[in-house]
C-alpha cells in the first residue's frame, strides 16, 4: 500500500513548484513555504540590489533573493526549460516567444505552471522557514520533522510533517574569492548577485572576475559603456591579451594580489589600475534553517548526500531538490522530484543507510583521485567517474 505523507516543501521557485506537483500526483499532502510574496524564486527579477554590493550577509533585513540582471535571457533554449506536460516551447507566456527568452517569460511560465498544476493553492506566501529539526531522531522512515516558520504578521509557528523537501535555491549567497592584499584596494567591489544594469560603469575601468555564463554576459554588456574591461579567469591560458572584436577588453589570468600601489596584479605579470572589481564567481549553498549533526557545507560540498538528494542518516524524510548545476536544470528538478515523491510513497526504494553512505564516500574518493576540488561536488558535468 502506498504511504501518503504530509510533506513540507521549503521554497516556491522552479524546484519547489515541480516538487509539489510530483508530490501531489503521488497522493501526498503538501504545504509549500515561500518567504517572498510570489512564486518563481530566482526568476522574479528585482531592480533593487542588496545594500552591501558584496551581499555578505544573506540574513540582512531586505536581502534580495534573485541574482538576475535586467537584460538576462536564458542560456538554455526554451525547449529544455519546461516541465513535462506543460512545455515552455511552442507558446509564449509573457509575449516573448524567442528560443532564448528574457527572464519575464520564464517567470510568467512558472506562474502559469503553478496554477495549471494545482500547486498554487498549496503555497503559503510570506512564510519564511526558520528552523527544520527532527522530532524523533534516528527513526528512519518513521522520523518526523518540525518546521518553524514566520508568517507575514511576524508570528512564529511550528508544525510537524512526515517529510521535508528543501528547495531554497543556491544562486543567492555570493561566493567571493579571497584576494591577497585586498585591504589595500580603494576602489569599489561588488558581486554579480547585485549587478542589474551597465550604466553605473560608464567610463570606468572594470575588472570582471570569472568567465561563467554571468561573467561573459556582464563583461560584454559593460564593455559598451566602460572605458576598459579586464576579465580575469582561472583557465585563460592561450587567450591572454586584447580580445579581438572589442576595442576595450582584455583577458587575464587569475588575480595574484592587490599591489602596494593599489593596482590589480594578474598571475601572468600584468597589472591595471581599476575603479571596480566585479566578482562573477558563483554562489554558496546556504541552509540557515538546518542544523543537523554530521551534515555540513564544506567548500560548497553539501553532504553527505546520496545522489545529491538524500542525506543517508535522515533519508527519505529529509531531502533536497535542486542542488546539481551545469545540468539541464528544469529536467533535473523534475526527475529528482519524481524520485522523492516515489520514495516517500514506498513505490521506489532506497538502499540502506550504510550502502548510501558508502556510495557517497566512493564518489568523494573518485573526485579526490581525479584531483577535483570539493566545491565541484554538485556539478553534473563533466562526470568524475569517466
Ligand atoms: P530559486 O529559484 O532560488 O527558488 C528558491 C525559493 O526558495 C525562492 O523563492 C526563495 O524565496 C525561497 N526560500 C529560500 N529560503 C527560504 C526559507 N527559509 N523559507 C521559505 N522560502 C525560502 N537556469 C536555467 O535553467 N536556465 C537559465 O538560463 C538560467 N539562467 C540563470 C541565470 C542566473 C543569473 C542565475 C542566478 C540562475 C540561472 N539559472 C538558469 C538557474 C536557476 O537558478 C534555476 O533555473 C532555477 O530557477 C532554480 O530554482 P530553485 O527553485 O532551485 O531556486
Automatic annotation (TrEMBL):
Enzyme class, UniProt record, top EC level = oxidoreductase
Sorted alphabetically, which Gene3D superfamilies does this protein's record hold? FAD/NAD(P)-binding domain (3.50.50.60)
Example of a GO MF term:
flavin adenine dinucleotide binding
Residues of the region (Disordered) are 365-386
Q: What is its EC number?
A: 1.-.-.-
Q: Which InterPro entries match?
A: FAD/NAD-bd_sf (IPR036188), Flavin_mOase (IPR000960), Flavin_mOase-like (IPR020946), FMO-like (IPR050346)
This protein's UniProt keywords? FAD, Flavoprotein, Monooxygenase, NADP, Oxidoreductase
User: What domain of life?
Assistant: Eukaryota
Coiled-coil parts of chain: none
Q: Which SUPFAM superfamilies match?
A: FAD/NAD(P)-binding domain (SSF51905)
Q: List the cofactors.
A: FAD
Q: Which family does it belong to?
A: Belongs to the FMO family.
Protein name stated in the entry: Flavin-containing monooxygenase
This chain's source organism reads Zea mays (Maize)
Amino acid at each position: 500500500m502506498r504511504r501518503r505523507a504530509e510533506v513540507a516543501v521549503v521554497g516556491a521557485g522552479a524546484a519547489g513548484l515541480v516538487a509539489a506537483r510530483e508530490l501531489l500526483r503521488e497522493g501526498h499532502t503538501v504545504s509549500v513555504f515561500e518567504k517572498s510574496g510570489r512564486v518563481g524564486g530566482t526568476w522574479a527579477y528585482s531592480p533593487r540590489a542588496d545594500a552591501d554590493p558584496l551581499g555578505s550577509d544573506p540574513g540582512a533585513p531586505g536581502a534580495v533573493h534573485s541574482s538576475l540582471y535586467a537584460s538576462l535571457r536564458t542560456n538554455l533554449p526554451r525547449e529544455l526549460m519546461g516541465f513535462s506536460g506543460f512545455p515552455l516551447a511552442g507558446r509564449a507566456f509573457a509575449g516573448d516567444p524567442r528560443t532564448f527568452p528574457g527572464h519575464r517569460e520564464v517567470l510568467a511560465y512558472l506562474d502559469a505552471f503553478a496554477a495549471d498544476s494545482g500547486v498554487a493553492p498549496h503555497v503559503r506566501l510570506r512564510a519564511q522557514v526558520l528552523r527544520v529539526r527532527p522530532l524523533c531522531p534516528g527513526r528512519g522512515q518513521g522520523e518526523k520533522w518540525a518546521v518553524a516558520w514566520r508568517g507575514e504578521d511576524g508570528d512564529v509557528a511550528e508544525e510537524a510533517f512526515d517529510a521535508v523537501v528543501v528547495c531554497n535555491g543556491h544562486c543567492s549567497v555570493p561566493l567571493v574569492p579571497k584576494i591577497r592584499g585586498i585591504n589595500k584596494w580603494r576602489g569599489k567591489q561588488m558581486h554579480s548577485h547585485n549587478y542589474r544594469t551597465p550604466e553605473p560603469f560608464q567610463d570606468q575601468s572594470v575588472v570582471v572576475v570569472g568567465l561563467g555564463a554571468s561573467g561573459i554576459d556582464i563583461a560584454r554588456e559593460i564593455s559598451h559603456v566602460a572605458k576598459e574591461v579586464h576579465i580575469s579567469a582561472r583557465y585563460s591560458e592561450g587567450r591572454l591579451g586584447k580580445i579581438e572584436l572589442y576595442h576595450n577588453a582584455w583577458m587575464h589570468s587569475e588575480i595574484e594580489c592587490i599591489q602596494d600601489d593599489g593596482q590589480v596584479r594578474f598571475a601572468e605579470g600584468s597589472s591595471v589600475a581599476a575603479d571596480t572589481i566585479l566578482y562573477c564567481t558563483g554562489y554558496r549553498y546556504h541552509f540557515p534553517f538546518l542544523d543537523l549533526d554530521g551534515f555540513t557545507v564544506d567548500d560548497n560540498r553539501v553532504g553527505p548526500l546520496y545522489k545529491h538528494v538524500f542525506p543517508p542518516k535522515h533519508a527519505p524524510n529529509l531531502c533536497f531538490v535542486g542542488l546539481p548545476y551545469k545540468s539541464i536544470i528544469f529536467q533535473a528538478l523534475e526527475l529528482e522530484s519524481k524520485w522523492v515523491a516515489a520514495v516517500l510513497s514506498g513505490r521506489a526504494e532506497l538502499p540502506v543507510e550504510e550502502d548510501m553512505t558508502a556510495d557517497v564516500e566512493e564518489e568523494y574518493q573518485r573526485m579526490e583521485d581525479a584531483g577535483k576540488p570539493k566545491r565541484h561536488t554538485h556539478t553534473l558535468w563533466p562526470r568524475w567517474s569517466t
